[in-house]
Amino acid sequence: MQSFQDTLDQVFRAMLANKVRTFLTMFGIAWGVGSLLVLVGLGEGFRSGQHRQLSTFGNNLVMMWNGTIPAVANQHTGMRPYQFTPGDEAAIRALPQVHAVTGYLFRNDLYQVSPYANTSSSVLGVEPNYATVRYMPVVEGRFLNDNDMAQRQRVVVLGSKSATLLFSGRPMIGETITINDIAFTVVGRLGSISHGNNDGDNQKLYIPRSLMLELFPLKGDNMATDALSSIQYQPENREDDAAAVAAVHRVIAERHNFDPAMKDAFNEWDLIKEEKLIGAIFTAMDIFLGGVGLVTLGLGAVGIINIMLVSVSERTSEIGLRKALGATRRSILAQFFWEGLLLTGVSGAIGIVLSAGFMALLQDMLTGKMPGWDPPRLVPWSAALAMGSLMLSGIAAGLYPASKAAALDPVEALRKE
Q1: Which of 62, 77, 228, 337 could form a disulfide with 402 if both were Cys (CB 3.0 to 4.6 A apart)?
Q2: What pLDDT is recorded for position 100?
């Protein structure tokens, strides 16, 4: 009885006897597998890059800004402006659908001076929980706390670029700057929170909201003395954020006397909805690219079946001689089956290794170089899909030609040239 080692020896001798054909077949399969993995890796790179980009704003976040109420729904005439207040924030905080909420006011017409330089960066009056709702990486000192709010402490936290502009690398914690000639003590510095090429958040300064309302309230006609610029919140349930958004709309509409069905009255950005939309787009892209890759592998399997059938035809006399000398149907079947399986399996492994190496090289070269995009990376499910498809292709590519070879009559096979 022929051993498995003998079968493999025959397989390798047959493959080496047709080096060019074997190389081209393996190259086609490896190229198809590598292309599939790189394409899916590119899609996942875009997905993770967009997720990382959105996470620099904050996790599970919905942002709302002061808006205008149309006189008639879907009409942009006779618009009546409204501003948020701490009362609106308190009403939203009471909703069971809301996990956390923060409100702030914003001024970009204030002037800052340090002992070394001056600038006119944007100033935000925020609450202590702003650092938990939004992404605020404190790299030196601390962020604002409840005591700062309650005591209206004249303290300030600097964004990374504001710190550079005002202190140029010098020590700043405990130092004093002035905002419109009012002294503030620096208690913290943030790391970079730029969003792609937009580094506006790095140029901001943060002071207690209670103090901001007292010293630098928002200006404008019919502006409430406690008007806020924005309210931002996190839904209790990320998967059902629409319920939280609808509840917040009802509260704001009721407090400002308009119909919550007037969508034009709300000026908001739902990052959860945005991320879900981006995820759906890239999932569809992965499915499409995966389908293209599977079709490519399927065509490769057809090519291998074709080549194996040609191999059977070319080796008809050899098969007849082996069967006449006592080779069993099973041993003939095994030889051609393992030849097809090895062609696909080895080719697929080579494609996976080369594509993984190529993507690792791109990771080293391009990580952090392109905002909103991460270099492609090997996605485990795509590699598993490729290998599973290759195994099925290899079995299909081996079984049919093998059965054709094993079914040959030895006498008829020996008569063919």
Answers
A1: 337
A2: 92
